[in-house]
Amino acid sequence: MSSEFDFNPRRGIAPDLPEGERVLWQGAPNWFGLATEVFHVRVVALYFVALAVWRLASGAMAGEGLAESAAGVALIAGLGSLAVGLLLAIAGGYARTTYYSITTHRVVIRSGIALQVAFNLPLSRVTGVALSVKSGDSGDIALTLDGSAHIAYAHLWPNARPWKLSRPEPTLRCLVDGKSVADVLVGALAAHRPITMNAVANTTPARLEAQGDRTRPAPARKSSRTAGIGAEAGASRMSA
100 vs 22, 51, 121, CA distance in Å? Predict the structure, then answer.
């Protein structure tokens, strides 16, 4: 793995690919998904709404006049709008400056507003893929790296799986087409090692266990249907 600073900004990846390497997919996070999932604008907005309600109630109990109560609520509303606006702007900035690339040999994460950094994640170092479905086909794709690979959580953020601080997992965040991108990634991994996958939907997530040079799915409970990737609301882990 390495960090790069000499980019082709239009592709989000170094301009000259090594011989034999092909780009399979490129994309970026959805800005509204970043705003809600990473910067929690809904939670912040609800906090200020609750604060405004508390201000009205406490003013009424103290016998405040309508004008004084309205002024207090207006101040809270202004501060809340400023906070939400800043978070939306930051989310939009990250969405515009973040590029994800999957090639036949690696995953590249390029991100940063003031200082841009790119991480090359060779597929040979990826030992697991977890798809966390949010709604519809959207979701996050987290990568588990082998023991010799370690990147600081602060360097990866916001492209990191939440709360995985001791063993950070690089993550393609807030993808509109998360399921299809996961299919592409797992297919690229399969080209490097034999892998068999069973997708389970609407039940316990499929878990793939390695056996020698093969990977077989662990037994799962009843499944209403099967598809190309194991997924449910939550996360499905696949080990390659």
Answer: 14, 39, 11
User: So what's the pLDDT on residue 75?
Assistant: 94
| Integer Cα distance of 212 and 198 in angstroms | 18
User: Any idea what DSSP says for residue 78?
Assistant: H
Give the CA diameter of the chain.
77
DSSP 234: S
Q: Are 73 and 52 in contact (CB under 8 A)?
A: yes
8 Å CB contact between 212 and 202: no
Give CA–CA dist 138/181, Å, rounded: 10
Contacts of 168 (CB under 8 A, 6+ apart): 150, 151, 152, 153, 156, 160, 161
Written as one letter, the residue type at 165 is L
Residue 214's beta-bridge partner residues?
Answer: 211
Q: Measure the CA–CA gap between 101 and 22, rounded to whole angstroms.
A: 10
Which residues have C-beta within 8 Å of that of residue 109, sequence separation ≥ 6?
Answer: 98, 99, 100, 118, 119, 121, 156, 159, 170, 172
pTM of the predicted model as reported, rounded to 2 decimal places: 0.72
Tens of pLDDT, residues 32-48 = 999 999 999 999 999 99
